[in-house]
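Chain entry —
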Amino acid sequence: MSQKLLSTVDFSITQNIPVADHVYKYLVRICGSDHIIATRSTFVGSLILSLQGRNGDVRPSKCKHHRVFKADISESYWQKNGMYISSENASLFNEQVDKKFRDELFRNMLMNRHLDEKHFIKSMRAFLEFYDITEEDIKLDTLHRDFKRKKDELLSNFNLVSPSGTKTETSQFVP
């Protein structure tokens, strides 16, 4: 009598998500490849899983991206939570990772704020070089203009932390 052992079949799906060139390179660097297994234990995996539902407040993007980032969604996840894959959600993923990329870049640049203004550009170039992001992926001028717009807000957020590490609050009623 021979018994056949039933093997477990993996019914996970791979979602191909179109992203901008600089977002693709950033993701490859922080994830280790352009294909991940999406889990809640990482920022990118958690973001992908969060975008699987319906997001009615997201407008379709007019930008067409040519790079693809792949994420495997496990069978247990999509059976438990369902799946709704749309171009709007893919666009939202690109936008959210781009925001994280810019936030990380700008905070890195602000770490050099004690240096003079020309060092901001050097800091930006070093950051982009680390992620292998070139002018062809995203224009330095675009990032620098965005940084100048957001610099004061980011600096004020840094100043909300007292030296002891506790957040200070100011009352609107105190003169």
Observations:
- Confidence is low (pLDDT under 50) at residues 165-175.
- The chain has one domain: 13-158.
- The longest strand covers residues 13-19.
- Residues 87-110 form the longest helix (24 residues).
